[in-house]
Amino acid sequence: MPHLLLKDLPRYECLLEAAREFPDLDPSATEVFLHLLRAGDEAFRVVEEHLAQHDISQGRFGVLMALWGNCQDAENKNEKPLTPAELAERTGVTRATMTGLVDTLERAGFVTRTAHPDDRRMMSVCLTKRGEKLLARILPPHFRRMAWLMEPLSEPERRTFVRLLTKVLTRATTSTPPSARDEETVRPGRA
Amino acid sequence: MPHLLLKDLPRYECLLEAAREFPDLDPSATEVFLHLLRAGDEAFRVVEEHLAQHDISQGRFGVLMALWGNCQDAENKNEKPLTPAELAERTGVTRATMTGLVDTLERAGFVTRTAHPDDRRMMSVCLTKRGEKLLARILPPHFRRMAWLMEPLSEPERRTFVRLLTKVLTRATTSTPPSARDEETVRPGRA
DNA sequence: CTTTTGTCGTTAGCCGCCTAACTATCGGTC
DNA sequence: GACCGATAGTTAGGCGGCTAACGACAAAAG
Questions:
Q1: Chain C bases closer than 7 A to any CB of the protein
Q2: How many CB atoms lie within 10 A of CB A24?
Q3: What does the radius of gyration of chain B's CA atoms come to, in whole angstroms?
Q4: B32, B94: one domain
Q5: Residue B63 belongs to a domain with what CATH number?
Q6: Which of A16, A146, A149, B167 could tie B33 with a disulfide, CB 3.0–4.6 Å?
Q7: What is the secondary structure of A45-83 as a DSSP string?
Q8: Are residues B103 and B10 in the same domain?
Q9: What is the pLDDT of residues B42-93, one digit of tens each?
Q10: Number of independent structural domains in chain B
Q11: pLDDT tens digit string along A46-99?
């Protein structure tokens, strides 16, 4: 979803000019950052448009993929139960959000919610036949969209791209940003 | 905001395996796609955490930046009026959303809403002194976060990165995805 | 066995984004 | 001068995230 800074990215010379006023502004870093957010947002939109045609939001799709991915592991039995907590963990939403997502998917008949045999606190969420059919219908065009989006990139470019993205991803997830201590103590305070 | 597919990205061999079942799946394209969405999401989170400490959402920040960016152009007069419609266009949200964002910012005293002198349908949104002070307080650590995030990348890597991101961005915004015609006629239909 | 601690799923309430519809106003046409 | 389409801003309602709190249950501590 569009949750962005500026729609048209600033030209590099503007960044250079702004850097004179703000010594902390690193022009090339800012440029990469803005392009990354913008490109990620557009790529997101490309597949979201397709999924929306099947009345599937990105969150719901994540749940279905998590259950389907799990199916791959144990394909002998058609059921591949996961708990809502595991689903939340894998798709990166809270357990509370997962309750709503599973609610919707269950109402639509794509998953079932059954009591866990061992632990009565837990539930087992399974993909139904209908859910599998939906995925079988959605996935091929979904994959085609991703392939289409990356078509301008050669194979070496793709490898380089993944390497650079991984660098940023690693940085973002394994380190703590600068002056996190200074600012975390600041309470919002005023409206 | 976390609105993602899978939190832990699949290994490449899994993609290769899945590609045998789905001929439309391009493993390298999918890998780039998933990494792009994931990295974009994490980068987004890094700055969002900081802004949240000042009770500023990404949407509100976009409005402030749009007004501030406009300030740069005409710095002689402290007022830099933009209409809500222009702000919506620049930040990539709808006019309805902009109404809410400006409401909040106005209540907090960061912007003012005044009648447009020429056209009585329009409003003029201006940054207040207090809004400028907020930006002056927020921007330096904001820039430091972006610089910190990109620190692992060398200058040549950054240039390559921007080039690759631009390729994807251009593809996503200037062309229409495959089979868009086939699917756009499909009505969601069922819950 | 009882108590404590922790986990699971759910609920309630907030916020930001969307679409669709409405009102007020402008500009052009007759 | 009176209509008429287009446009600006707002409102109403929906949806999908979030946090905080809850009751049910399991596992460890006594």
A1: 6-13, 15-21, 24-27
A2: 15
A3: 21
A4: no
A5: 1.10.10.10
A6: A146
A7: HHHHHHHHTTT--HHHHHHHHHHHHHHHHT-SSS---B-
A8: no
A9: 999 899 889 988 889 888 999 999 988 665 444 444 456 889 999 999 998 9
A10: 2
A11: 998 899 888 898 889 999 999 886 655 444 444 568 899 999 999 989 999 999
